[in-house]
Amino acid sequence: MSADGEGRSPWFDDEAGPVVRPYAMTRGRTSSAAQHRLDLIAVVVTEPGADDPESDPTLSPEHVDIVERCREAPQTVAELAAELDLPIGVVRVLVGDLVDLESVHVNRPVPPAELPDESILRDVINGLRAL
Amino acid sequence: MIFGRSERGKPPVEPVTLKILVAGGFGVGKTTLVGAVSEIRPLRTEELLTEAGRPVDDLSGVETKNTTTVAMDFGRITLREDLVLYLFGTPGQERFWFMWDELAEGALGAVVLADTRRLEDCFAAVDYFERRSIPFLVGVNCFEGAARYPADDIRRALDLDPDVPLLTGDARDRESVKTILIGVVQHAMAQAAQRRQTVTT
């Protein structure tokens, strides 16, 4: 968890944890209807027609951040969590909200049972060889 | 971002994403392996857990914390604009297995990294992937100064099924890691083909 790291502040420090408890951003929610099955590599894509998120007063700055980031280039849940420095669970809830608002949609990764799509696997092998 | 908006007409590419897990004991080189091929510095995701009923943990200095953080490092390899492979280092401690379940779901396959000086550290991972029929191979990370053992001895020590590939390599070396990853995908393909055959016959 990040803090300013300088240790100057008289009233909080790393040990006390983040100044804002992570799940405060989700108003205490730890799950949302849409989050179920939101894989770490599920890709979040901002809907092209999504309104300017900043004009929506119900959205938190973190929501806005997600909409903006995924408009530029779709991102996975794991990447959003790393870049926003938020726990995965928090990102799932926030993304779930945005799905409900139809600001973003989520592309699920290929389900394992259907994975034996040989052409994709072959593409992966070729791609790795070409690295 | 102004750039993003000016391009609104053209929808961004929505890539197919795949993942390979990198498991193994603490300090065996999981993050090093990820870093050797990732196009980004390995990123870290975290999940918070409450520590209920888990008093024993070797985290000196933070004993009073009642939440703990499970961290996973991951890297990304863009194979094509529309095909992206993610590598996830699994959390080392066995008690985070519920995180493994989540990670393992939909995974293409896994690498179990082994250090011959501490082979027992990867028993748990081998067992885990075997039970769930997740295609995996064992990558022996050749540390300098560690004795080299014949592959058969290592196989026997790990009680590996004969069809599980065992490769030796260097987690720091990009080519070596590429070979290991290609091995995982090939093994996944073979396992899938085998499974299809059992279904049809």
Automatic annotation (TrEMBL), chain A:
InterPro entries: DUF742 (IPR007995). It comes from the Bacteria. This is DUF742 domain-containing protein. It comes from Streptomyces prasinus. The lineage of its organism: Bacteria, Bacillati, Actinomycetota, Actinomycetes, Kitasatosporales.
UniProtKB/TrEMBL annotation, chain B:
Pfam families: ATP_bind_1. Keywords: ATP-binding, GTP-binding, Hydrolase, Nucleotide-binding. It comes from the Bacteria. InterPro entries: Gliding_Motility_GTPase, Gpn, P-loop_NTPase. The keyword rRNA processing does not apply. GO terms for molecular function: ATP binding. Belongs to the GPN-loop GTPase family. This is ATP-binding protein. It comes from Streptomyces prasinus. The lineage of its organism: Bacteria, Bacillati, Actinomycetota, Actinomycetes, Kitasatosporales.
